[in-house]
Amino acid sequence: MTMAMTLRELAANLGTEHAQVVPITVFVAVLCLCLVVGHLLEENRWVNESITAILIGCLSGTIILVLSKGKNSHILTFNEELFFIYLLPPIIFNAGFQVKKKQFFQNFFTIMLFGVVGVFISTFIITVGSWWLFPRLNFIGLTARDYLVVGTIFSSTDTVCTLQVLHQDETPLLYSLVFGEGVVNDATSVVLFNAVQKLDVTRLDSKNALHIIGDFLYLFSTSTGLGVIAGLLTSFCLKMLYFGRHSSVREIALMVLMAYLSYMLAELLELSGILTVFFCGILMSHYAWHNVTESSRITTRHVFAMMSFVAETFIFLYVGMDALDIEKWKMTKLSLGTSLGIYGTILMLILVGRAAFVFPLSVFSNYMNRRAERSSMITLNHQVVIWWAGLMRGAVSIALAFKQFTYSGVTSDPVNATMVTNTIIVVLFSTLVFGFLTKPLIYCLLPHSTANGQQPREAKMPKEDMTVPMLSMEESAATNILRAKDSLSMLIERPVHTIHSYWRKFDDAYMRPIFGGPCRNNSVC
């Protein structure tokens, strides 16, 4: 057997039974190599798992390209259904399950500003910019829907590089904002992508714009509601039936299957499975996790994190291999100068679109939190870090590009092939170049004491801040009127913290006793 024999020829020689076994075996072996190399580079904060997987993918693609004599660079063919049905759910569910809920909901208003409003602003700028600049670069052939999709594709962020450098205990506000925006951003991008698919692009006017916003709000609210219902139902079953008294396996299996069921139900109902499974993960972590045995609590956290890690590594490994797909490059039919111009244009629009909402919305968020603690204010240096954290593009961008411009990973249209290669190059460049520069940038912008772990933690909310006047049936009407006035005054002066305080009291009084979890005094409700 010569070195020139390809993996596909080897599989054919082994028979039809092994036609799929050999590529999968090799791909799994490369995944294992990623784990080993990632472990060896654990102390090097310049290189994270995403960069490692991409580099190994490029190396593997080069080797396969040589062995196949320039015919092929990857082992498996990308299928967007594989991504959206099997790879994406564990990634998003783990993000919701592992999120620090206190920080997430304390900064919920700012996170939603960045993750929802910011995506609309970024999508608008990238769409208009590409619509205006691509024809001037002699790149034509995209439809109006394609330009709208391009805006959503390149508005989806990947914040892994920044999160690896930031420390949650040292910069809790910044970490919470970057992490929360990253997850909400991905969900919003996919929801907006689906809304664009239903849009009548023959006439783009204000009515159609309102239609997009209406569809988005419908998908966002119904998908979130479905995820909340699934999480509460799982929590209630685990609390009432107490599976752990017989087997911890059943309670873990129930959590996994109910999370996946919520995602598939959302997709079946043409909702957003990402939003559904994300909020399902939050609700399960908040309630259901406290209703299982101690061993199951430890197991679930590690199992969900492992599934997410393998799925993310799988995606970036494939991106590295697909970057050397000769067939797509031959199909583009664009000169090197034109291609470089398109790459530079997309990156410039990403930079501008990101800045167009991060800095103004940060000012607005600071105004809304003007009476809060100083530690909850977003400084200029923090704003720059948040802006930089959202410049990397990742798995969701790749999946949306393949879903729009290919059919089961294959395309024969030069324009579609160009958009796929554009997306891959932007993901590679932003992940490698911006990712490598993340650590020195953060260490330069944040105080030196932060880098050394000496920054004081955020001050806890004073006790009086948590004392929110609530109406009582046992009090007189006059007393309740005074309470209502005090509540309204607090809501106007400190809207975010007041709403959060109300929720904490409602959660302890009504939700935790039914669905499980410790009360504020750490006793089991």
Quickly give the structural class.
Answer: mainly alpha
Question: Separation of termini?
Answer: 67 Å
Task: Please state roughly what percent of the residues sit in beta strands, choosing from under 5%, 5-15%, 15-25%, 25-35%, 35-45% or over 45%.
Answer: under 5%
Number of helical segments with 4 or more residues: 22
Mean pLDDT: 78
Number of strands: 0
What helical percentage do the residues reach? over 70%
* CA gyration radius, whole angstroms: 25 Å
Low-confidence stretches: 1-7, 449-474, 488-493
Shape: globular
Biggest sheet overview: none
Task: State the order of secondary-structure elements, H for helix, E for strand.
Answer: HHHHHHHHHHHHHHHHHHHHHH
Structural commentary:
This protein is mainly alpha-helical and 525 residues long. It has helices at 7-14, 21-40, 49-67, 80-98, 101-106, 108-133, 144-153, 160-165, 172-197, 206-241, 248-268, 273-286, 294-322, 326-332, 336-368, 380-389, 395-405, 414-445, 448-451, 463-466, 477-493, 495-515. Helix 4 (80-98) packs parallel to helix 12 (273-286), helix 10 runs antiparallel to helix 11 and helix 11 packs antiparallel against helix 12 (273-286). The radius of gyration is 25 Å and the shape is globular. 42% of the residues are buried. Mean pLDDT is 78; it is low at 1-7, 449-474 and 488-493.
Secondary structure: elements and pairs:
Blueprint (H helix, E strand, L loop, with lengths): L6 H8 L6 H20 L8 H19 L12 H19 L2 H6 L1 H26 L10 H10 L6 H6 L6 H26 L8 H36 L6 H21 L4 H14 L7 H29 L3 H7 L3 H33 L11 H10 L5 H11 L8 H32 L2 H4 L11 H4 L10 H17 L1 H21 L10
Helix pairs in contact: 2-3, 3-13, 4-11, 4-12, 4-13, 4-17, 6-7, 6-9, 6-15, 7-9, 7-17, 9-10, 10-11, 10-12, 11-12, 11-13, 14-18, 15-16, 15-18, 16-18, 17-18, 21-22
